[in-house]
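**Sequence, structure tokens**
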Amino acid sequence: MEDAAADAAQEVTASLLAASRLIVALSVRALADVDETLTLPQLRTLVVLADQAPLKLSDLAAELGVNPSTALRMADRLAAGGLLARQPNPDSRREQLISLTPPGRDLVHTVMDRRQAEIAELVRHLPAADRAGLVRALRALTAAAQDTYPDSPDHPGLRLG
């Protein structure tokens, strides 16, 4: 009985890893279709800023789960590309706030729209019963993740909402 449960858990894990690779591949393709010079970590930075900007550099680094120096280099590259802007923090003259420029926001929306369209096309090819089962399974997985990884400093960059 335990072997069957372990085998089932392994099958679910392998299936989730395969689905994860698929989603990453779709993200890479959507990004390459829009801008061949950007990397996935740079896109992730832009997505975080699209959701939460303006952010202090330290807050951006915490959201990304990277060192502030890594976030600074990323911000420098994206600012040089005209995708993000920095402005003084009105609460602290020593800090800057980072936010997307209009071209940065447009890029995020375009990439996400392309990725969503590709995923929707894949979903359309699934039988209705499989779609319903997938929705239930993904909701259960998300709920389990929220219970297992609540918002905390121990789990930076893991946003489930």
